[in-house]
Write a structure and sequence with these properties.
The complex is a heterodimer of chains A (483) and B (253). Chain A is α/β, with parallel strands linked by helices and 483 residues long. Chain A folds into two domains: 26-316, no CATH class; 430-483, no CATH class. Helices cover 23% and strands 35% of the residues of chain A. In chain A, strands 5, 6, 8, 9, 11, 12, 14, 16, 17, 19, 21 and 23 form a twelve-stranded mixed β-sheet that branches. Chain A has a ten-stranded mixed β-sheet with strand order 4-3-7-10-13-15-18-20-22-24. In chain A, helix 2 (61-76) runs antiparallel to helix 8. Chain A is globular. Chain B is α/β, with parallel strands linked by helices and 253 residues long. In chain B, the strands form three sheets. Chain B has a six-stranded mixed β-sheet, with helices on both faces. A four-stranded antiparallel β-sheet of chain B has the order 2-1-4-5. In chain B, strand 11 and strand 12 form a beta hairpin. The longest helix of chain B is centred in the middle third of the chain and has 15 residues, at 148-162. The radius of gyration of chain B is 18 Å and the shape is globular. Classes of the chains: A alpha/beta (483), B alpha/beta (253). Chain A binds chain B through residues 426, 429-432, 434-443, 445-446, 449-450, 452-457, and chain B through 50-54, 73-75, 78-79, 83-84, 86, 89-95, 100-101, 103-104, 107-108, 141, 158, 162.
Chain lengths: 483, 253
C-alpha cells in the first residue's frame, strides 16, 4: 500500500476542449485524463485500508475508531436484497479501490490545480460557473477535493465551506456534534461502508441569521476505473440561516463497475432553510447507492431536489425528519431510466412533531428496457396532530418494454392528521411522436420534448442554470435512445 | 413554383391495400378538395404523404418539387415543406404551444444556428393577431383539454408559423360547429396565396362553402374516380356518393 505512481489509459481525445456557455456541462462526462495518484489505498477492503485512509488524513483517534467500528458494522450487515434488486450482489467489494488522490490539500486558486485535473474540470465548465453565479465551489476528483474556494464576501459572514477532512480537523466543535447523528453508521449497509472509508464531500456551516444569496456547489468526478467514491457531506444551517447547495456528478464510461456511495446529512436548526439540489449524470456502469437525510427543527425547512440520470443502479431516498413543530420537508424527485438502467428512488418523511408538513413529488421516466421504482415512506405517529403529507408519483413510459413500480408506504396513525396520495402512469405513444415529427422534430427531439413536458412543472422550480442543464441532459439521453 | 405530384400511388396497412393507384398534381397557389365516402382512403392518403410509419407504400411515388419524399422520415418531409393538419391532433402535456412551435422552428434551422427569441415571438404574435387568436392561447399545453374548435385553430396557427409549401388538411371540418367552422375557414383563407398549395380532405360539402376549392376530386376505393371544379362538389351534395358508385359500376360492367 505504498503510494504508487500509476498511469491510467486515456479514454478520450484530449485535443477536444470546449467550455459550455451555460451551466456545468455534464453531457460531456465521458472522457478521462491520465493522472498519477500519490496516494492509493490499493484494491479491496480491510482494516488496513481504513487505517491507511485515516493515517493519510492525519485524523484524530476518535475518527479512526469511528471508521473501524463502521467497518465491523458493514461486514456484519447483509445486502438488502430481500427487498431491493439482486443486482446489488454483483458489486465485488474486493475489486474496488477505496482511496485515490493526488494530494491532501485542495487548491484555493484555480491556477494551482494540477494541469490534468484542471483540464477535466475546465472541460466540464467549473471555473466559468463559479464566476457566473456561485458563492463557492468544491471540486472533488476521485477521493479528495482538488479545488475549493468560497467567495470572500460569503466567508466574511462566517460561512464555513470545507471538505470533510478539514471540517473534522479544524472545526470539531461545530461538526462533531452532528456528524453521524442524522444518519447513524448502521442505518444501512452502505451508510456503514461510507462511514468506514469516507473521504471528501463538503462540510458547511451557516451561522445564525446568515442567508447565503448564491448557491454553494460541489462537483464530484470519478476518474479512475474500479473506483469507489465515498464522499461525506454535512450541512448545518444555524437558527434562521438559509443556504442552497448544489451538486453535480459525472464519470467516464468504463467496462467494469464503479461504486458511488455517499452519505449526506443536513441539519436545519430553528427557522433555518436548506435547499439541496442534485443533478447527477453517472455513466451506466456506476452503482449509485446514496443515503441522504435531514433533520428539520422548529419552523425549519428542508427541500431536496433530486435529479437522477444515468448510472447502472441508483438507490436513493432523500428523507426529512420533521423534529420541531411547524417544520416543513419536501422532496422533488426526477428519475430517468434508460436501457440497462434501474432508478430505484423515492423519499422518506418522518413526522416527529405537531403541525409538521411534508410534500413529495416524484416523476419517473422509463425508456426502452429501463426500469423505475418509486419507494416512499411517510410516517406520522398516533400522538401527533395537525400533520400533513402530500405525495404525488407520476410515471411516464416510453416504448412498451419499460417497467415502473410504485411502493408507497404510508403509516398514519390517529385521526388528527391529513394525508393525500396520488399516482399516475402515462405513455408516450406513437401518434404523439408522429404528430411532433410532422412538425419537423426528429424522433429524438420529439421524445425529448415529451419528457421535458412531463417534468416541466418541477423543472420550473430549479435555478435557471440547472433547469437548462437538466433539459440538455434529457435531450442527450433521448437522442441516444432512438434506435 | 412548387409542386406536389402523386404518381400512381399504392399504399397498404399491414396486408390490406388502401390506396390503389392514385395520381394527382397540386401546384402552389391551388386548392384541391378530395371528397369521398367514409373508408375510401382519404385520411390514409394524407398520412401516407406525410410519412406515417403505420403505412407501407407498395407502388408509385410522391414528389415534392420533383424529388421523391418516400425515402424520407416524417420530420424530413415536414422540414421540406409538407404540413399535415391532423383530424385528431395529439395532446402534448406540459409543452406550451409557444415552446412547441419554437422547437419546430428551431428544427428548421441549420446546425449551430440559434433561434432569435424576440423575433420569433414577434412573428408568433403577429400571426395570432392575423388569425384573431387570443395571446393567452399559446401558453396552454398543446391540445391538452382543448375543444374541437381550439384544436383545429391550433393546427392553423402552426401552419401559419411553419409556412409550408403544401398543406394536407385532414377532415378539418370534423367535430366543428358552424361558428368554429367559420373561424377555422377564415384562417385557411387568410393563409391561402400563391406560395401555398392545399389538399383539403373532407366528407361534407359544407366546408367547401367556406373554403372554395379550385379543383374537386372524388375518391372511391383508393382511387380518384372523378375530377372537376367546385360545381362537382355541389353535384355530389345533390346526388350523393351513390351516384358515383353507380357510374363506376356501369363503367366497369
Amino acid at each position: 500500500m505504498q503510494p504508487p505512481s500509476e498511469t491510467l489509459s486515456s479514454a478520450a481525445d484530449e485535443t477536444v476542449m470546449e467550455n459550455p456557455t451555460v451551466g456545468i456541462d455534464q453531457t460531456k462526462g465521458d472522457f478521462q485524463y491520465k493522472v498519477d495518484y500519490a496516494f492509493d489505498a490499493g484494491t479491496g477492503l480491510s482494516e488496513d485500508t481504513v487505517r491507511y485512509i485515516s493515517s493519510v488524513k492525519k485524523e484524530a483517534p476518535w475518527i479512526l475508531e469511528f471508521r473501524l467500528n463502521a467497518l465491523k458494522k458493514f461486514l456484519s450487515m447483509p445486502m438488502p436484497t430481500h427487498w431491493a434488486t439482486k443486482d446489488l450482489d454483483n458489486i465485488d467489494f474486493a475489486k474496488i479501490r477505496y482511496y485515490l488522490s493526488q494530494g491532501q490539500k485542495p487548491k484555493r486558486t484555480w491556477d494551482e490545480v494540477p494541469d490534468d485535473i484542471k483540464k477535466t474540470f475546465e472541460r466540464l465548465g467549473i471555473p466559468e460557473q463559479e464566476r457566473k453565479f456561485l458563492a463557492g465551489v468544491e471540486a472533488q476528483f476521485d477521493s479528495e477535493a482538488a479545488y475549493s474556494n468560497i467567495k470572500d464576501i460569503v466567508a466574511k459572514q462566517g460561512v464555513i465551506f470545507v471538505n470533510s477532512t478539514e471540517g473534522l480537523r479544524e472545526h470539531p466543535e461545530l461538526f462533531r456534534k452532528w456528524f453521524g447523528k442524522v444518519i447513524p453508521t448502521g442505518d444501512n449497509k452502505f451508510s456503514a461502508l461510507n462511514s468506514a472509508v469516507f473521504s471528501g464531500g463538503s462540510f458547511i456551516y451557516v451561522p445564525k441569521g446568515v442567508k447565503v444569496a448564491q448557491p454553494l456547489q460541489a462537483y464530484f468526478r470519478i476518474n479512475a476505473e474500479n473506483f469507489g467514491q465515498f464522499e461525506r457531506t454535512l450541512i448545518i444551517a444555524d437558527e434562521g440561516a438559509e443556504v442552497t447547495y448544489m451538486e453535480g456528478c459525472t464519470a467516464p464510461k468504463f467496462s467494469t463497475s464503479t461504486l458511488h456511495s455517499a452519505v449526506v446529512e443536513l441539519v436545519a436548526l430553528k427557522g433555518a432553510k436548506i435547499q439541496y439540489i442534485t443533478v447527477q449524470n453517472w455513466a451506466n456502469n456506476v452503482f449509485n447507492l446514496v443515503t441522504k437525510r435531514g433533520v428539520a427543527h422548529e419552523e425549519a425547512e428542508i427541500k431536496w431536489i433530486d435529479c437522477n440520470i444515468g448510472s447502472r443502479l441508483t438507490m436513493k431516498y432523500p428523507g426529512v425528519v420533521l423534529k420541531g413543530e411547524r417544520a416543513r420537508g419536501e422532496v422533488i424527485s426526477i428519475a430517468l431510466a434508460n436501457d440497462g438502467q434501474h432508478q430505484d428512488t423515492g423519499a422518506k418523511m418522518v413526522h416527529a412533531a405537531n403541525n409538521t408538513t411534508s410534500n413529495i413529488v416524484a416523476k419517473s421516466i422509463s425508456v426502452g428496457q429501463g426500469r423505475s421504482t418509486y419507494r416512499g415512506v411517510v410516517h406520522i405517529p398516533k400522538h401527533l396532530k395537525g400533520c400533513k403529507n402530500n405525495t404525488e408519483c407520476d410515471a411516464l413510459l416510453i416504448n412498451t418494454n419499460s417497467r415502473t413500480d410504485t411502493y408507497p408506504a404510508i403509516t398514519v396513525r390517529g385521526d388528527r392528521n391529513y394525508v393525500q396520495h396520488e399516482a399516475s402512469v402515462s405513455k408516450v405513444n406513437e401518434e404523439m411522436i408522429f404528430y411532433m415529427q410532422q412538425r419537423g422534430l426528429t424522433e429524438g427531439q420529439a421524445m425529448s420534448l415529451a419528457v421535458n413536458g412531463f417534468i416541466n412543472d418541477l423543472a420550473r422550480q430549479f435555478p435557471m442554470e440547472y433547469s437548462v442543464e437538466l433539459k440538455r441532459l434529457i435531450d442527450l439521453e433521448m437522442e441516444g435512445s432512438v434506435g | 413554383m412548387a409542386s406536389l405530384v402523386i404518381k400512381d400511388l399504392h399504399a397498404s396497412i399491414g396486408d390490406k391495400p388502401i390506396v390503389k393507384g392514385l395520381s394527382l398534381t397540386i401546384n402552389s397557389g391551388e386548392v384541391h378538395a378530395i371528397m369521398g365516402p367514409n373508408g375510401t382512403g382519404k385520411s390514409t392518403l394524407a398520412k401516407v404523404i406525410a410519412g406515417h410509419p403505420d403505412y407501407t407504400v407498395t407502388g408509385g411515388d410522391v414528389l415534392l418539387d420533383g424529388k421523391s419524399v418516400l425515402e424520407q422520415e416524417a420530420d424530413e418531409r415536414a422540414r421540406a415543406g409538407l404540413f399535415l393538419a391532423f383530424q385528431y391532433p395529439s395532446e402534448i402535456p406540459g409543452v406550451s404551444i409557444a415552446n412547441f412551435l419554437r422547437a419546430a422552428v428551431q428544427a428548421r434551422m441549420a446546425e449551430g444556428e440559434e433561434i432569435d427569441a424576440a423575433a420569433y415571438y414577434k412573428r408568433l404574435y403577429a400571426r395570432m393577431d392575423m388569425l384573431k387568436i387570443d395571446r393567452k392561447f399559446t401558453s396552454r399545453s398543446v391540445n391538452e383539454g382543448f375543444s374541437g374548435g381550439e384544436k383545429k385553430r391550433c393546427e392553423i396557427l402552426q401552419m401559419a408559423i411553419l409556412e409550408p409549401k403544401f398543406a394536407l388538411m385532414d377532415e378539418t371540418d370534423s367535430g366543428l360547429d358552424i361558428d368554429a367552422l367559420r373561424i377555422v375557414s377564415e384562417g385557411v383563407n387568410t393563409l391561402r396565396g400563391p406560395g401555398l398549395g392545399v389538399l383539403m380532405i373532407t366528407h361534407y360539402q359544407r366546408l367547401l362553402n367556406y373554403i372554395v376549392p379550385d379543383f374537386v376530386h372524388v375518391l372511391y376505393d383508393g382511387r380518384i374516380v372523378k375530377s372537376g371544379d367546385k360545381s362537382l362538389a355541389l353535384e355530389l351534395e345533390a346526388k350523393g356518393y351513390d351516384w358515383v358508385k353507380r357510374e363506376l359500376a356501369a363503367a366497369n360492367a
